[in-house]
């Protein structure tokens, strides 16, 4: 039990105007000893955590409190703490002649929080979700914790969990049955296909949910490429854009809020914008995959959707990882064609590109923390090489610091729970 001792001290007042408030005075040592109507009390309370000083509240008026201070009788306060001792052997040196010491603003958690330049919130996350036609949720081997979700059940439950911790934006990626795939990817614009059906279901249950969609042919193509493949292996640009326009309109008609062309065909942003506007969907936004690199970090994603190219690679339409200035060319084109959001993919290995777009465009910037990034952090955590949660949050903070307004990340639910302090 905490114990406390209380020591009364007599308030000394020598102001004539307050004399009527006190008993008959007696003079001692040149001061006026009076019996006040209200006694101010100092409390030195001792508790389990150590000594605590407190001043017991009195009923003195403001004028009486001020008069006591003017007379040199301020209430006592805790003593000035001693300077902390240095460890034995610390050298005695003269202080460095520094007018500025940046560490002063880092010296406590409160200071660090007050001056933090970049913040991270569940509202910054877009949650990529894989869907399929089945009833059960199928685990994805290369992406621990991720599943192909049944569109009628598992998906709805996962969206509910995300919304509970402040993640209200998702992006859908479908696992399409092989029997529905074709060289021209016609299933991409089937208005009763997996993605349009899913959008309608989610919008019926969660009208304020922000739904992003992927606009590309690779999940629907029997060749596994983002566009129509000519017999000599060339990806046909303009014919592919024609298909993408129909896909975007079908998604918008189902209720998509943001369509996201990830194909990297030339001119597709302007064509999709015109197609949406012509069909009465001028309110639907376009998030362009502006700087999508031909990266080796996409492997687990392609396993999730079974969308590996049947031959070749995607280097004739996705960007060269060695290129920096080329991202500015894509940025200017997408801006001029009507993009609403510019995206960089992958995320963490391309922080310089995120900053490049941030410094050269006033549009919102998105970053995609791709499957390879996610799986590496997960694997490092499982092997106890890193602290998974701390590395996860640091990686997301770095993407924000580089300039990303929103982050597409498979960590969205886990990170939001961590930020909200929820125990998993």
From TrEMBL:
Region Disordered: start-end pairs: 72-105
GO CC, one annotated term: cytosol
Pathway as given in its UniProt record: Porphyrin-containing compound metabolism; protoporphyrin-IX biosynthesis; coproporphyrinogen-III from 5-aminolevulinate: step 1/4
Function field: Catalyzes an early step in the biosynthesis of tetrapyrroles. Binds two molecules of 5-aminolevulinate per subunit, each at a distinct site, and catalyzes their condensation to form porphobilinogen.
Catalytic activity: 2 5-aminolevulinate = porphobilinogen + 2 H2O + H(+)
GO biological process: chlorophyll biosynthetic process; protoporphyrinogen IX biosynthetic process
Protein name: Delta-aminolevulinic acid dehydratase
The protein's Enzyme Commission number: 4.2.1.24
Biological classification of the source: Eukaryota, Viridiplantae, Streptophyta, Embryophyta, Tracheophyta
Compartments where located: Plastid, Chloroplast
């Amino acid at each position: 039990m905490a114990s406390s001792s209380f020591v009364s001290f007599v308030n000394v007042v020598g102001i004539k105007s307050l004399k009527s408030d006190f008993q008959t005075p007696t003079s001692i040592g040149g001061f006026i000893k009076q019996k006040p109507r209200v006694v101010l009390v100092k409390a030195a309370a001792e508790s389990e955590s150590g000594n605590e000083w407190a001043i017991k509240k009195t009923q003195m008026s403001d004028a009486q409190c001020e008069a006591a201070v003017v007379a040199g009788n301020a209430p006592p306060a805790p003593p000035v703490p001693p300077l902390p001792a240095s460890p034995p052997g610390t050298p005695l040196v003269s202080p460095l002649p520094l007018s500025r010491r940046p560490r002063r603003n880092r010296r406590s958690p409160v200071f660090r929080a007050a001056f933090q330049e970049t913040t991270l919130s569940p509202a910054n996350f877009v949650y990529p979700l894989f869907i399929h036609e089945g009833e059960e949720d199928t685990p994805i081997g290369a992406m621990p914790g991720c599943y192909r979700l049944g569109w009628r059940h598992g998906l709805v439950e996962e969206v509910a969990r995300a919304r509970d911790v402040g993640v209200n934006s998702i992006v859908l990626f479908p696992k399409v049955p092989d029997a529905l795939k074709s060289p021209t990817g016609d299933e991409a614009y089937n208005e009763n296909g997996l993605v349009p059906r899913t959008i309608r279901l989610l919008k019926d249950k969660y009208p304020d949910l922000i739904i992003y969609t992927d606009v590309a042919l690779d999940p629907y193509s029997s060749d596994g490429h983002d566009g129509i493949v000519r017999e000599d292996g060339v990806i046909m640009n303009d014919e592919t854009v024609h298909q993408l326009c129909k896909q975007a309109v079908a998604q918008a008609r189902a209720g998509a809020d943001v369509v996201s062309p990830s194909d990297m065909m030339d001119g597709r942003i302007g064509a999709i914008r015109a197609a949406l506007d012509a069909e009465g969907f001028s309110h639907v936004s376009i998030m362009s995959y502006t700087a999508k690199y031909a990266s080796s970090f996409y492997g687990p994603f392609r396993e999730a959707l079974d969308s590996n190219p049947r031959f070749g690679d995607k280097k004739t339409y996705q960007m060269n990882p060695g290129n920096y200035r080329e991202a500015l060319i894509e940025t200017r084109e997408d801006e001029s064609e009507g993009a609403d959001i510019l995206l960089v993919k992958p995320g963490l290995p391309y922080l310089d590109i995120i900053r490049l777009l941030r410094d050269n465009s006033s549009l919102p910037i998105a970053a995609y923390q791709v499957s390879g990034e996610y799986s590496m952090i997960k694997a490092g955590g499982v092997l106890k090489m890193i602290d998974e949660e701390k590395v996860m949050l640091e990686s997301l903070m770095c993407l924000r610091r580089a300039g990303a307004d929103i982050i597409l990340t498979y960590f969205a639910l886990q990170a939001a729970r961590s930020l909200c302090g929820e125990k998993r």
